[in-house]
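Input record (Table S2, row 708):
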Amino acid sequence: PYMKKHNFFAGPAILPAPVLEQAAAAVSDFEGMGLSILEISHRSPQFVAVLNEAEALVRELLGVSDDFAVLFLTGGASSQFFVSAMNLLNEDQTAGYIDTGAWSAKAIKEAKNFGGVNVLASSKDGNYNYIPENIEIPSGLQYVHLTANNTIFGTQFAEFPETDAPLVADMSSEIFSRRLPMEKFGLIYAGAQKNMGPAGVTLAIVRKDLLGKVKRTLPTMLDYRTHIAKQSSFNTPPVFPIYVSMLTMRWVKAQGGVEAMEKHNADKAQLLYDEIDRNPKFRGTVANKASRSLMNVTFEPVDEADAQPFLDACEAAGCVGVKGHRSVGGFRASIYNSMPKSSVQALVDVMKSF
Amino acid sequence: PYMKKHNFFAGPAILPAPVLEQAAAAVSDFEGMGLSILEISHRSPQFVAVLNEAEALVRELLGVSDDFAVLFLTGGASSQFFVSAMNLLNEDQTAGYIDTGAWSAKAIKEAKNFGGVNVLASSKDGNYNYIPENIEIPSGLQYVHLTANNTIFGTQFAEFPETDAPLVADMSSEIFSRRLPMEKFGLIYAGAQKNMGPAGVTLAIVRKDLLGKVKRTLPTMLDYRTHIAKQSSFNTPPVFPIYVSMLTMRWVKAQGGVEAMEKHNADKAQLLYDEIDRNPKFRGTVANKASRSLMNVTFEPVDEADAQPFLDACEAAGCVGVKGHRSVGGFRASIYNSMPKSSVQALVDVMKSF
Ligand SMILES: Cc1ncc(COP(=O)(O)O)c(C=O)c1O
Ligand SMILES: Cc1ncc(COP(=O)(O)O)c(C=O)c1O
Ligand SMILES: [Mg+2]
Ligand SMILES: [Mg+2]
Ligand SMILES: [Mg+2]
Ligand SMILES: [Mg+2]
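Output record (pyridoxal-5'-phosphate complex):
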């Protein structure tokens, strides 16, 4: 009924069209209950089924074993910056952090209130335009934190570093985009609003044996164990954001799971990076190909005078959200799981005829 | 298109029918943007306008001056139990708490981790079936915390206690249901999912001059000042829950504001309490009329054998959510702002013909 745009926003971001259709229907009437999904009890069997399915889908899509808890929380990835350290790091212990930009820097800042922080590597010297390689990681760290995909700078860890400490990873802008070596992780967290669902829910996948070891008193709501014991319903969870995330995971599964997403995402990213490299009017902002993100493609005009005209051309072609983050400038095309190749092609067409 | 139920759930709870209609439409296409409201940036002018209107409506509906900040947070009222004390109470200070049941008890428990707690009064001796009166409040308290309306026990403060300390009030199950003496309050908080919107957003109205006085280091996301400085957009706010809350507030305003709600709610509550009192098969569970909630009407069968048959009769008449909370038993009819009198009448009709 409306002219659908090509949505390149970094987050909240594009969701699959069939998910949006089902979500709209559930707001009118949820599963024939005669009630909207917005007005049903979180303890109703219908919503408990949604929550159970959401957890099962996370486990299935990423191969998450029972050693881990799967939690649907709130507060965004920004809250996990401190909640992760609060739950996992004592005053007299040290965690390693890899600094690949704004999000890592915030995680580092918050962790320092809870214990020792050892910044193992940083790409600050290049305005975060690369992922540090061959990082020397000392032993004895409580965990090693990294931003798997940096949404702002368009960088992504192609491989995860080798370390004897569990990895704690902010996967906000790449969750479900590729297969993961789960055995390396102690905690994965992600704000939903990029690759998983709408804003308002935060996924946490945490290895249970790491919990209950800090000496401080945790507020009940900040202790992962509270939410584990009550299956994310200690208090009222964000019902609708969880429902739409579940629908999105169902959609990922129907497409062939994260393995299929991985191929689909590599394919879309190549289409766009190839054009950036080929086209003399544009260049990528990331220093090397190995550091390039498959989720957030950052580039810039060779001639600064082309910046606004190109954004105008994008808008005219129905491509929205292409403007780069203010701290980098230039352009950013976020091409998450739900982005069809045809939308990437639409953007490439604008570049070709620009 | 569907058989609408009479929704007596305690929360998440009934929302106005026109709000649900607009919400469903926005999930398909938001304001002709060619995008769903679930996939637009929280920094887009369209959503910034929603956030501004939501704040303005809170201010207008409750008469909130510039001395207060109006914040849209996450984590539910359960997070405010500790966040309020963390922001307002030093280790060497004492706050007063009035204990009117489960929710107060949780607030008390969480506050004890941050400073002194003086329980000024409790109705525990009567399984919380009344609101303590003529409470003696010493001076020198940092604030006095109360649960304005107790959702579980069906009790409500008809008047707020006199004290020289600012009141901190959990208004989760009564926000926007009546006019408030704002000059008495230092902080009001409410999970949205009863009287304000869907689950996933938490309202906080805080007097700005009370902030910045505690000595502890606050995690950035837990400092009210962070969210004041960034107008509830320091990180990604729960876009859709805020949007639907804004629509609900617009609806309250269109009905004549909280003054009209107050009359409407008193009228509905009287209809139901009159039938409870008149009908020999039912009795109220609250000890005195002054303590009765206008939001959550708790009652029980005189003959315990009537319990299940009455719930069945309710279901048959399309009245859902009438079962009492497990800690009280019996029945509970939650009749929030959005509940039409015709739905209360439908329940009364079931009682009359039972
Ligand atoms: C990698 C990354 N981490 C953290 C955040 C912050 O997430 P939130 O807004 O959910 O707190 C974002 C997005 O905004 C992000 O892209
Ligand atoms: C009075 C009151 N306070 C607090 C809560 C807990 O709220 P939330 O689930 O938003 O944490 C509730 C409802 O469940 C409530 O009724
Ligand atoms: Mg980073
Ligand atoms: Mg080029
Ligand atoms: Mg209480
Ligand atoms: Mg009676």
